C-alpha cells in the first residue's frame, strides 16, 4: 500500500508530465543496453579506421562516419552539415 504522501507525489509527477519513474531493474537494463550499443559502435569505428582507411577522430559519432562516407562518394560536406555534389570544372 502507498501512503498519502507517495500518492500525492505520484499525482504531482503525472500532472507535471514527468511520467513514471523507471524501476531499478529497468534502469540497470537501460545502462547495460546503452553500454553494449556504445561498445558495438566503438568496434565498428575501430574497424573503419584500421581497415577502411577512414580518418575518424578518437571519439566520433555516427555523424562523423556519415560525413566521411559522403566525402568518399564524391559529395562535399561543410562543417554545418550542408551537403552537395562536387561541381566538376569542364
Automatic annotation (TrEMBL):
Q: Which Pfam families match?
A: BES1_N (PF05687)
Highest taxon listed in the record's lineage: Eukaryota
* Residue span of region Disordered: 1-35
Q: Name one GO cellular component term.
A: nucleus
Which key words are in the record?
Answer: Brassinosteroid signaling pathway, DNA-binding, Growth regulation, Transcription, Transcription regulation
Coiled coil ranges (UniProt) are none
Low complexity bias: where? Answer: 1-16
InterPro entries named in the record: BES1_N, BZR
Query: What residue stretches are annotated with the BES1/BZR1 plant transcription factor N-terminal domain?
Result: 18-88
GO MF annotation, one: DNA-binding transcription factor activity
Compartments, record wording: Nucleus
Its GO biological process annotations read: brassinosteroid mediated signaling pathway; DNA-templated transcription
Give the family, as the similarity comment puts it. Belongs to the BZR/LAT61 family.
Function as written in the Swiss-Prot or TrEMBL entry:
Functions in brassinosteroid signaling. May function as transcriptional repressor.
Q: What is this protein called?
A: Protein BZR1 homolog
Organism whose genome encodes this protein: Triticum urartu
**What does the organism's lineage look like at the top?**
Eukaryota, Viridiplantae, Streptophyta, Embryophyta, Tracheophyta
Quick one: which gene encodes this? LOC125536527
Amino acid at each position: 500500500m502507498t501512503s498519502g504522501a507517495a500518492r500525492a507525489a505520484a499525482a504531482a509527477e503525472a500532472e507535471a508530465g514527468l511520467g513514471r519513474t523507471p524501476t531499478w531493474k529497468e534502469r540497470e537494463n537501460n545502462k547495460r543496453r546503452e553500454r553494449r550499443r556504445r561498445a558495438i559502435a566503438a568496434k565498428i569505428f575501430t574497424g573503419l579506421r584500421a581497415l577502411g582507411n577512414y580518418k575518424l577522430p578518437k571519439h566520433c559519432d555516427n555523424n562523423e562516419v556519415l560525413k566521411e562516407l559522403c566525402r568518399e562518394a564524391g559529395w562535399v560536406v561543410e562543417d554545418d552539415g550542408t551537403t552537395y555534389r562536387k561541381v566538376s570544372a569542364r
